[in-house]
Every structure is written in structure tokens, then in C-alpha cells.
């Protein structure tokens, strides 16, 4: 049913995806908010590695403002991970945006 060429290409794609997963796990990005008063560093697996809050922010702002900035910095870092993942998938699949399921209206990997 499937030719030898198809099986070889499927195996190559699987190897490329495994390499990409390793690269993404090693990737670190930093999201910022409040003029870099808050930074959130995370890896390509969406694990938050660190949160840094400038001491002067804690002296001058209310807790709710600091919390909002932490959320904003985390979302900034998440967006950077999503972009890096999409770029890596695009390199592997050759499909703009890197989502081979997008043509079917399905969410990405």
C-alpha cells in the first residue's frame, strides 16, 4: 500500500520532530513587562524557570499591579515560545506557520 519511499520520508520526519523537541526543551526565552521591571524566563516546554521582580517596583506599586505585570511578562514569554515552535515546525514541514493540521481547521501541535 505505502511505498518504501513513503516509509523512509515518514521516518525522517519523525527524526526531525524528535530533534525539534530536544531543541525546544533547551530553548530559553524571556518575557518582560513594565519596562523590564518584571522578567519571566521559560523554556520551550512552557516551564517557567524564573521570575524576576525589580525591588523598586515592590516599593512603588500595589500588589494587584505587580500581579498584572507578572501575567503580562508570562504571556510575553509564552508568545515567544509559540513563535519559536511555529518557526521550527515550518522548517520541518515547509508549511507557513508550521501547522500541518491548519489546512483542516485544526489547532497546531
Produce a short descriptive summary.
It contains 3 helices and 3 strands, in the order H-E-E-E-H-H.
Structural class: alpha+beta
What's the end-to-end separation, in Å?
Answer: 27 Å
Contiguous helical run count: 3
**Low-confidence residue ranges:** none
Q: What is the succession of H and E elements? A: HEEEHH
Q: How would you sum up the major sheet?
A: 3 strands, antiparallel
Bin the strand percentage.
15-25%
Q: From the alpha carbons, calculate the radius of gyration and give it in angstroms.
A: 19 Å
Indicate the percent of residues in helices. Answer: 55-70%
Spatial ordering of strands, largest sheet: 1-2-3
Per DSSP E runs of 2 or more residues, the count of β-strands stands at 3
CATH topology of the domain at 21-94: Ybab, Chain: A
* CATH evolutionary superfamily of the domain at 21-94: Nucleoid-associated protein YbaB-like domain
CATH A-level architecture of the domain at 21-94: 2-Layer Sandwich
Report the CATH C-level class of the domain at 21-94.
Alpha Beta
Output mean pLDDT. 84
Shape: rod-shaped
